[in-house]
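Lab notebook, bench 4. We co-purified these components, and the gel suggests they stay together. Before we commit to crystallization screens, I want a quick structural picture of the whole thing.
Request: model the full complex, all chains together.
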Amino acid sequence: MQKLLETLLIGVSTGSIYALMSLALVLVWRSTRVVNFAQAGQAMLSTYIGFEIASRTEIFWLGLACAITAGALLGAGVDYFFMRVLFKRAVSGPAAVVAPVIATLGLLGLIRSIVGLIWGGEFKSIEAPASKNGFTLGETTIPFSALNLLIIATASLILITLAIIFQRTNLGLSLRASAYAPEIAQLAGIKTARTRTIGWAIAGGVGGVAGMLVTSYNFLSPYSLDLLLVFGFIAAVIGGLESMVGSVIGALTLGIGLTFILNYIGTSLVFIGGFAVLIVVLLLKPDGIMARGKVRRA
Amino acid sequence: MELWPEVRCAVRKKIAFFILLGWLLLLIGDRIDELRVYQGAQIAMYTIALASIVLLTGYSGQISLGNGAMMAVGGYAAALSLNKLESPVWFAFLMAVFFSALFGALLGAAAARLSGPYLAGTTLALAVGLPEIANQFAFLGGVPGILFDVGFPPARFGEEFTQYKWFFWIATFLALLSLFITSNILQSRFGRTWSAIRSNPLAAELSGIHSSRMKILAFTISSALAGLAGAVLAMTISLVAPGAYTLTLSFALVTGAVLAGVSSLPGVALGALILVAIPEIADVLANSWGGGENFSNYLPGLIVSLLLILSVIFTPNGPGENLRRHHHKKASEH
Amino acid sequence: MIRETRRRGAWLAATVLAAGSLIATALPAYAETGVSSSEIKLGITLPLTGAASPGYNKIGNAMNAYFKYVNENGGVYGRKITLIQKNDEYSPQLSIAKTNELILKDKVFALVGPLGTANFTAVHKSVGLAKRGVPSLFLNTGFSGFAKKANYPASFMILPSYAMEAKIIAQFLKENHAGKKLGIVYQNDEFGIDGMGAFKAAGTKFDVTVPYTSGSQSAATAQTWVSQLAAGGAQVVVFFGVTSATAPLLAVAAGAKYAPQWILGSVGSDPLTLRALGVPVAVLNGAQTPAGNPSPNDTSDEYVKQFQEINTKYNTGTAFDDYVLQGMNIGLMTVQALRAAGPNPTRKGLTSAIETKGSTFASVAYSPLGYSKTSNVGHTGYYMAVMDANGDRKPFGGTVKLYTTDSGSGPVVLSTFKRPAMPAKGLPSNS
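Here is the predicted assembly.
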């Protein structure tokens, strides 16, 4: 019983970080119809910047704030300078299928190399803002720590903020409109291109949070966020890529599922477990869990 | 098959071409030093792997980020056949092709309804997850992997005939064979059908093409090629281990294919050359510019990524397309 | 027709391009094997970055620092030693690729100190070191299989084997922790399995066994190790893995308030690196570990003192720890080996020099060296040590009690061996 509870709690904590990443991916997908693999690179660079600030000032939250800002600027920059150029040019021929994917992959590699050149490949670590010691209930100590709780709290805060922005503000309305029907939105006077850039900025900021949270308990290196990208992407696909709620559900499912496999079966099946979850979901519902019939696709 | 006599003539010309090419490469292999011979074997390996991408993505329009995993299937199948069944080398390669084709068919069946990012996500998960299976079952060798020993070159070639040259011969032969077969498939009605499905799926369905069956076929053949490449890779490093078939490999394959033109089969030789040459060039650059460890570790990645981005932006369909456009412009000006 | 020609044109172009670049970059026929009138080239593959690199990535620079010192004092018979380091990220595939570069491109005379069990196994087979006759000196791994001369004719160990280490730990457990519940965490490849085999042969029964896959170590997986150990009630836990796995294990255990008696295998026990990876020094206090060398902080030891001076002058910015000590010692051994090979060294000559004279070389480790015409074995023993509240290492029981043994079924014996004195100023003058 205790093991079950432990697994559940850790799964939620891990899943909430995946949720941030998958949310960022869905945000970009819905506004641009591109899966932004460079999200991991943006998150990584933002995290390194956050790391620099956090280790110099010894304040984690300041580092986090910087990471969010850096991520937002990076996201906006990538959309403005990179994506627009890409779409003007790579629109025909067999490569149209793969061009955006490859381009973002290339961007990921580029950012990773630049980070490596500047900071090197050495493992870096940040002082966690909360204790990593498990909570003690009487005799037993469970592996769920104050840090895990903080991660869940931070992720939830971000998710709720985003939900409010999207559902209750004009900006959110513009974002959703530009993503769903750009021509009509433009006719209604919404500056779709600028709105899209804002969407990328938000996604970049969220990615920065995800990276900082992961780094609070794992080492930072030019490769440390790769797993986050893979699982964030899988979570987004499970959730259906069209729905933000779906991506959160998908992420939590994935987080809990993977932790179950980790605790009950063993480390070596974790990745193939993720693949199995994905295949099962897509076989039953090729458009993801939250899909309702024929949704608009690429 | 209709068009039989015309096809026969073209095929004969192609056979002659390939034999000539093989002879040329053999002669080159005799003139250059061992490191280059070894790299030649690697280029041959990448050629086969890139051909699998061209078929799958360039022709049938299905994006896969998991061809590295298919290479792993081929590599392990060949190694197990060699070690457990003690089969001859050619049989091991046959097993590689067979099992990866089987896996490809299964994957294709599961993925037939998927497209775009959903397919990318699935193949991505496969690329990350499949090599990890080796850690679960002891007979797959775990992280250190299984040794893959194709044996020494036949004694009649003499003392000077090094192991790496033997690899080069085997790899080049297999590469030429694969290219020959693949180019025939792509030029046949299969290739045309795939192109049709890729450019306009709806029209293809309406004209009676069985889309999912053809897509599964594409996955099967592409995986067979990837599996063969995986076995050749295992041969060149005498080892099959999960670390040889990482996500990075899958990314590198897609990169190479795009750089040389994702739908151009002749381009795979160029793409393979680039993939092997870049770390070399980066090494030379890093050494001449000085700079520390960081430089030589990350410079190859930087160059590859930069090249990739530039080529996607400026020549998304490979350098061949730009040449063709140039030709057309010249032709229309007359 | 036009299309056909154009397509054939593309084929031809691709071929010519491929052939042309191959020829253009081809080098002339084979150069000499790494020795010139002014230089001896040596190569090493080790993890400079990546999951397993913390700690080990210092070994190469430490070796280099020692070589620089020797070069500035006349070199080896007037030749300067150049060490080429290649990063293999602890991945056997990369080790193979980088070793190919070292041998075929950089054309080194010999390999020195290549790191990693799975790595060297793969390299030796794949690159064909035996057939090429490239010597590999003083491997940075203790896998007992490497000692078999028949399989590894030109490779020489320096560390005691993992089987030896396990036997000595097993004896220590019997003498000092009898009756307690035992647990073990080990890396699930030849490195860890080598130790496990010896534990089994020595009759040690573990109540909890936790294998981990190399590369999978992290805070999350360490969580599962600790859960298993705690659930099994292990009071003494042996750890046989790399430093980057020791760190999360100790850190997570401390967080979960699980505090067994730790016995850390020599490979993953350097206190300085562990603290850099986040292990509180309070957790290290009392941890026991087999050690072959004196503590790197023990300046009363002549070897340590000399190496520290060299480190300060030639390897500035790097703190002196177990790995720096190990690297410098390998440098010392290498220079002695090169000198013993004579003023006109050949690869074969180097190998026989170590076989005939290697057992008398000066080394910082306390145990005797076992090189001979029939054995590649380097050091042959350990003493047990304990870490104190400062993370420093002191001999268990106050004085160094050296135990020696073999990798097979031989007994573990208390040894009175006295190691050779360090050559004056740390500069060998042997021949």
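The first strand of chain A starts at residue 134 and ends at 137. Worth comparing against the SEC data before the next meeting. The CA atoms of residues 50 and 297 of chain A lie 36 Å apart.
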